[in-house]
Write the structure tokens for this entry.
Amino acid sequence: MRSYSPPTQRTTLCPARALVPALRAAPRPRPGLVLSLTLPGDPRSAAIGRRAVAAALPAYGLRSQAWPAALAVTELIAVNAALTPGRELYLSLRHRDDALRLVLWDQHPRHADPDTLALCEGRRRRALWLLAAVVDDWGGEWGVGDARPPHRGVKSWVLLPQ
């Protein structure tokens, strides 16, 4: 009785690549940093976001921005998760034009009452006091505003220059 052996598989490059010498010879440009995460609306998600950012930045030659960016992401996620518990958060991190751009969208509903809206916005800004201090110390900018479609809720952002 013969035993069965599975067929051998080989991984090869696309055959078109071998036919076009320019594709083979052209150096690949190093892609810029683009990181996106969808996280649960839970304060424990702050640790996940912090670790992801802290690991990604040195890999793209941005080690000097790892500390302030990791702290900024931690604060954004923790505060937004507390204000909108149980709803997903979407984090975007990009390096472009010699600056690191962090954006966090939460699903906090817009308040119809102007007094409630002002109270809620004030609480959010006060809760982000540590973020404000770090961003200011690094010469950056930050802000909070309504998310534009297709996103819902509130968009919080940080810009850290290189």
Q: What stands out?
A: Residues 5 and 128 are 61 Å apart (CA to CA). The mean pLDDT is 85.
